[in-house]
Amino acid sequence: MIGQFHRSELLLGADAMERLSASRVAVFGVGGVGGYAAEALARSGIGTLDLIDNDTVSVTNLNRQIIALHSTVGQYKTEVAAARIRDICPDITVNVHNCFYLPETADQFDFSQYDFVIDAIDTVKGKIGIVMQAKEAGVPVISSMGAGNKLDPTAFRVADLYQTKVCPLARVMRYELKKRGVRSLKVVYSEEVPIQPAASDEVTQKRNVPGSVAFVPSVAGLIIAGEVIKELAGLTKKRSIPK
Hints:
CATH topology: Rossmann fold
Shape: globular
Distance between the termini: 44 Å
Number of helices: 7
Strand content: 5-15%
Structural class: alpha/beta
Number of domains: 1
Strand order of the largest sheet: 3-2-1-4-5-7-6
CATH superfamily: NAD(P)-binding Rossmann-like Domain
């Protein structure tokens, strides 16, 4: 009988689909980038997803986040995403963690349980912590660099962190990880020069509220999901373990 992953199996093969079904992926950050990545993973046949975020859906998320609807405003992003994913794939296991990844919460996560880790958060300390914990556990990780203040979805690239250019966040990450002895990290980044956004009266935890649109962070999330799926399915030889 033809199932929901039939079209994927035509391209990837039955063995690859079995590997994906047996895989567990952690998605840190379920916003504009992570939300699209998580759903694409589910639609690709990943068997277990861990969703980590402590944010709730805001009205300002409606312009770009796949989980943001007027009916979901005020709800935890992780729980909204989990409900969507379970509706797409009833057999999937979704573990929800309503917390931010911070130095004080890092010990709540056993990275050795994961087959792949996606870093889609926007705090430098958290991103560094995820990379270091993944390195220690020997687990592949892919990290999203800055997607805010961009308008060109065609400017995204997949590269090693030390081969990136233009991206201010990548520059900071290179500096910080080099000090910690990390010599390699797979990232998705944009070569578009960031646009200076207009002043905003929005109140958030960030000093500067970035501008964003529907067609940029979504592309970054889908690129990340594609890289994860290809590695887990055995279609690429390189494993994205930080060195």
